[in-house]
Amino acid sequence: MDEYSELLIVNRPVIYVSVSELLNMHKLLLEHQDAISSDPSDMLRLILQDLGPVPTLQELLGESWADAGSEHLEVSLTLSNRFDIFEESDQPDARGLLLSTKQLIVDVIRTQSGDSLSDILRTKTSPGQEVHHDWLMMRRAQQDAQTPEKLKRNQSLVANSNLSLLEKKRKILRSLHRLEGLGVLRPPQTHNQILQMIAKDIRQQRLHRQRRGAELLKLRQTLCRLQEKSSFHSEQVDYYKHYITSCLDNLTANSKSANKKTADGKGKKRHPALSYSAARLQEKGVLLEIEDLPTTQFKNVVFNILPGPETGSFRVKAQFLGVDMEEFLLQYQDLLQLQFEGVAVMKMFDKAKVNVNLLIFLLNKKFFKK
Questions:
Q1: Predicted confidence band of residue 259 (pLDDT cuts 50, 70, 90)
Q2: What Gene Ontology cellular-component terms does the record carry (predicted)?
Q3: Model's pTM, two decimal places?
């Protein structure tokens, strides 16, 4: 956690504490605030000053809630920045205005010197200062042209670079007045306040760069580990796919061998396809229902099950009164996945509901001899 963490969070953090814990924490902070924060201007002291003395249970919850056992009542507190200088409604506008004003002041100070910011803004610019300012802005434009598109500065900041030195001074004065109206700066020391903000940014720039470099290194290491893990899982998936295909091939081979022995024993060739009427499948419990078709018509519907183009796949053809209707490609692995997930019923042809376990049993018995 650092001063930039709050800008990155999507949802505000929430803590859950009991009322008694909340009161005890308030009491302990008041008793030991000298040891915790010795600086009179510390933010914690300002918060404690706003809160005042520790309230009673009745003052905190009200008379209607302050009964026996209410001190164990749990409350949820959404954390927010007490010292955020921006309101939620004007936050984007105020932040952008403050950032652009800082950039304008830095551009002016780099070109023109003075005893204070007020003196610099009131002093007229010379032609030599304008020429030096134009040269600095041209060099910045050349650097921006070499910057990747995603890392380029905001368009409003780029537009400010096209202003002359005198125009920038006028815009700074207007922006400072607007920032006062938004409550970001408080008169009469507005110039000193924004200079202190710029100085703080400069002091923390190196620290922020170091943190960003460390975070970038961590991200690269994490990406490398994720790539290694992804490669490992891909190899595992390929291995299991090969293993499952081998198992299905062995089951199919055993089934063909059994069918061949049966055919030799009976002196005729056995047809690999299965043909069941919907009524028969309903008796076996495989077929549960067919949408928009009464059970009295199930005898007119025939399902033909044939081996599919790939190992472990089946083609299910539906006929109604001897007329071919639709064809459904059934994957044996999909059935096993549904069984593993605990799904009892699946749909075929978007209308026929079948029992997954009994359908697997039927296929194992007729095709795999399992």
A1: low
A2: cell cortex
A3: 0.40
Higher pLDDT, 63 or 193: 193
Contact predicate 325/319, CB 8 Å: yes
Quote the CA–CA distance of 265 and 258 in Å, as a whole number.
11
β-sheet bridge partners, residue 347: 353
Calculate the alpha carbon distances from 17 to 23, 47, 53, 72, 112 in Å: 10, 19, 19, 9, 55
| Ramachandran class of 54: left when φ > 0, alpha when ψ lies in -120 to 50, beta otherwise | beta
Q: Is 186 left (phi over 0), alpha (psi -120 to 50) or beta?
A: beta
| Amino acid at site 26 | H
C-alpha–C-alpha distance, residues 114 and 120, integer Å: 5
CB 100 within 8 A of CB 175: yes
Give the whole-angstrom CA distance, residue 137 versus residue 130.
11
Per DSSP, what are the bridge partners of residue 16?
76
Q: Which residue has the higher pLDDT, 5 or 313?
A: 313
Q: Is the pLDDT of residue 296 over 60?
A: yes
Q: Which amino acid is at 22?
A: L
